[in-house]
Design a protein that fits this description.
The chain is an alpha/beta fold and about 240 residues long. It has 2 domains: about 80 residues, P-loop containing nucleotide triphosphate hydrolases (Rossmann fold, 3-Layer(aba) Sandwich), CATH 3.40.50.300; about 110 residues, 3-Layer(aba) Sandwich (Rossmann fold), CATH 3.40.50. It contains 9 helices and 12 strands. The strands form 3 sheets. The protein has a 6-stranded mixed beta sheet, sandwiched between helices. Strand 4 and strand 5 form a beta hairpin. Helix 4 crosses helix 6 and helix 8 crosses helix 9. The longest helix has 14 residues. The N and C termini lie far apart (about 40 Å). Bound molecules: deoxyuridine-5'-triphosphate and magnesium ion. The site of magnesium ion (MG) has 4 residues, from helix 1. The site of magnesium ion has 4 residues, from helix 1.
Length: about 240
């Protein structure tokens, strides 16, 4: 792939069109390949908005976002979508087979690669149990699989694309703590050279992150590792206690 996955925000401010106040103010951070950057903060803090700026669902109002040192606007939509896998907060499956859902963004993936992605996403078991397995049908919106299964299939889809940047928007909170832990342990190998950005609700999901950004009302109010933040950030302590 053409660009290494360093994602850099430089003084990014963003307001939704027509809104008075910005939703994100002066956001700066660097998410490096091989590292996990976690974003935590209360509902409405701007976490999803921040992630959505990376694949250019919206453009920053002020400031700049770069991937591999190249400003997003110079990268082109194709390059961006080939380099980034985003698992949205409300992951979506379309009508078709499990295989066709997984190959969205990874047309070339072999069945073996799809099974490997399913294994990492802790989805191998329930797919293996379905009649037709990879060829079993998913209904529009994925209504014939459970919410947790849908989330894991969307994680498998992200993995099958083998991008160099992963965005997980609250992708682990619907999983039980055990599956969450297993999945994140399994992710380490396939994402080891990628920049991984995880929005989390549960602190336990991100205690091992290389850096944690605490987002509050659109601002980064603290940053550091779990241990550092426990000592330095009241907001983080409150999140941990909640
Ligand atoms: N907002 C809009 N328009 C949108 C999406 C969001 O005005 O299309 C507002 C709602 C909120 C702020 O932006 O005041 C941040 O929303 P976001 O969805 O980014 O917050 P979050 O941190 O992802 O919240 P949650 O934890 O509930 O997912
Ligand atoms: Mg959100």
């Amino acid at each position: 792939l053409p660009t290494p996955g360093t994602v850099e925000f430089k003084n990014v401010t963003f307001g939704y069109p027509g809104a008075e106040a910005p939703v994100l103010s002066d956001i700066s951070f660097t998410a490096k390949p091989g590292q996990t950057t976690a974003i935590i903060g209360s509902t409405g803090a701007g976490k999803t908005t921040l992630l959505n700026l990376i694949p250019r669902l919206y453009d920053a109002t002020e400031g700049e976002i770069l991937i591999g040192g190249v400003p997003l606007k110079d990268l082109g939509r194709d390059t961006i979508s080939r380099n980034i896998s985003a698992v949205p907060q409300r992951p979506y499956l379309f009508s078709g087979t499990i295989a066709s859902n997984l190959r969205f963004g990874a047309q070339e993936a072999t069945e073996e690669e799809l099974w490997e992605a399913l294994r990492v996403a802790q989805a191998e078991g329930f797919v293996a149990e379905r009649e037709g397995q990879l060829d079993s049908k998913i209904s529009q919106g994925g209504t014939n699989v459970s919410g947790g299964q849908r989330q894991r299939l969307c994680i498998a889809r992200a993995l099958a694309a083998k991008p160099n940047t992963y965005l997980f928007d609250d992708s682990f909170s619907a999983l039980d703590v055990n599956t969450d832990a297993k999945l994140r342990a399994a992710l380490a190998e396939p994402t080891k050279d990628a920049a991984v950005i995880i929005v989390a609700q549960r602190v336990s999901t991100i205690t091992g992150a290389d850096q944690i950004l605490v987002l509050d009302h659109g601002e980064i109010v603290a940053r550091g590792t779990h241990e550092q933040l426990l000592e330095t950030s009241e907001t983080y302590q409150e999140i941990v206690a909640s």
